[in-house]
Design goal:
Layout (H helix, E strand, L loop, with lengths): L2 H22 L7 E8 L4 E8 L4 E8 L8 E16 L5 E11 L7 E11 L4 E8 L4 E2 L11 H7 L7 E11 L24 H4 L15 H4 L4 H19 L4
Antiparallel strand pairs: 1-2, 1-9, 2-3, 3-4, 4-5, 5-6, 6-7, 6-8, 7-9
Length: 249
């Protein structure tokens, strides 16, 4: 393997490892399916998205943004580039999420919009978000910078690497909801397969099925002649016969 091939192989391994590390570290509290409760945009009427443990998400919704107030439907998908998670003393969990999404109806192929979202989960399962989003779509190759650590910092100092529109929204988890903490998502172990139904043959009474279960002290096993005892007996018998048939010197 030459140096260029070796370097390429190592780069691929590092990239794949980074993806697995990012997927394993995503907070469980944001995973699951969430529905829109309210928004600062009065024309945004519905949204439902599912956040997966590896950081990707899919969603759909609608709003009345047309000139005549007609309903505009949309579907979208995207991925998380950066996040941080903090648990406050009152038990609330705050997430900073830097993500991008592609809107199938409103974006050209190969375009995305980037968002810095600050989402606070309260004990009642409601997630309140302050969102700073690019006003227009950009090419997929546009590099995403780092979001400020808090919504207050984003409002005070702005986000120097992108223009933003500010909005607020509230979502509620409705399916596959996780505990309210910053713990990583962990897959539940699969349930054991159900036992097969009894067959006609196995349901018939047999002498073996009518035997009483052996007592826990193993005394039933002591009533059986072990196989190694039989072999020992045969060996002793054979040696005795051989000794008797061998003439003395």
């Amino acid at each position: 393997m030459n140096r260029r091939s070796f370097t390429y192989t190592v780069s691929c391994i590092v990239a794949v490892t980074s993806l697995f590390q990012a997927a394993a570290a995503y907070p469980a509290v944001e995973t699951g399916t969430h529905e829109l409760v309210s928004s600062s945009d009065p024309n945004w009427t519905y949204d439902r998205y599912t956040q997966y443990p590896n950081g990707t998400f899919t969603g759909y919704g609608n709003g009345t943004w047309g000139e005549l107030g007609e309903v505009n439907k949309y579907t979208y998908w995207g991925d998380v580039d950066q996040y941080s998670c903090t648990t406050h003393s009152n038990g609330d969990v705050v997430l900073m999420i830097n993500y991008w999404y592609h809107d199938d109806e409103n974006h050209e192929e190969g375009q995305k919009q980037i968002t810095c979202s600050y989402k606070s989960f309260s004990q009642d399962g409601i997630g309140n978000s302050v969102v700073f989003r690019q006003p227009t779509a950009v090419d997929m190759s546009f590099p995403s910078g780092e979001c400020p650590a808090t919504a207050e910092a984003a409002e005070r100092d702005g986000i120097d690497w992108m223009e933003t529109d500010r909005s607020e929204s509230t979502f509620r988890c409705v399916k596959d909801c996780q505990p309210l903490n910053c713990a990583e998502f962990k897959e539940s172990p699969p349930a054991p397969p159900p036992a097969p139904p009894p067959t006609a043959e196995s349901s018939k009474s047999s002498p073996d099925s009518q035997r009483a279960a052996p007592p826990p002290d193993g005394s039933a096993a002591q009533k059986l002649v072990p196989g190694n005892m039989i072999i020992t007996t045969l060996l002793v018998t054979a040696l005795t016969v051989l000794s008797a048939s061998t003439p003395a010197n």
